[in-house]
Amino acid sequence: MTDDRDASEASTPTWVDSHCHLPVDVADADVIVDRARGAGVEWMVCVGTDLPTSLAAVALAHHRDDVFATVGLHPHDAVHLADQWPDLRALATDSRVVAIGEAGLDHHYEHSPALDQAEAFRAHIGLAHELDRALVIHTREAWEETFTILDAEGVPRRTIFHCFTGGPDEAGECVARGAYLSFSGIVTFKNAADVRAAAVAAPPDRVLVETDSPFLAPVPYRGQTNEPAWVVEVGFAVAAVRDQPVEHVARITTEAADLLFRAK
Ligand SMILES: [Zn+2]
């Protein structure tokens, strides 16, 4: 045995899925999480997008020690802020909750009005500060406004841009604010050269991998129902574009996830 780094990188790589959505039914979720464990995924973060899915994420995180929960309102559901926020706020204090969100701005779909999205985003940023939890950001076609709101409210010390879809410029803007970039199966898509360039440019201590399952299955599973087991494919793709050993990328992404979600 030589030093720690050699020892850990000599063994089979293990992974963390920093962002997934698991079934509300615990038995269904168990099957999927067990399959991920079998593929080398050590733990995962189950992300809430409204009150029912946040409640389910917290329940699952109490049922399994390899699942952690987030609590939040997706920008699509921002219109529910007034009726769901009091319960979400209370739920967010649960010991198994490691982050607030996903929250942010989605001007691609705009399922909720832009003003409601901005108000909900500000509320999530405030709660992340208040509880000193990580903040999980969803942003789509809204980079400028996302940065403007973040800068005005103050960037929480643990902030993640989930399913990062920008290029090197946006990656630089995020990193300058101390944020982390979580790469999804999009890095394996043919038309995603910009995202791959961002994955190359990202500093080694700012990179995470995620599935965003059940969405965005990576190549070679595109079109199928995604699941956390396939974060391994994302990790391999990130390693390939960064021209680094898979074991190294597994280690740096796991260390970043530990720091973001499990460090006090
Ligand atoms: Zn998501």
Structure summary:
With 264 residues, the protein is of the alpha/beta class.
In CATH, what is the class?
A: Alpha Beta
Please tally the β strands and state the result. 8
The share of residues in helices is 40-55%
The strand line-up of the biggest sheet is 1-2-3-4-5-6-7-8
Classification by helices and strands: alpha/beta
**CATH topology value:** TIM Barrel
What compounds sit in this structure?
zinc ion
What's the overall geometry?
A: globular
Total domain units: 1
* Overall pLDDT confidence: 95
Primary descriptors:
single chain, 264 residues, alpha/beta, TIM Barrel, eight-stranded parallel β-sheet, 10 helices, 8 strands, disordered N terminus, binds zinc ion
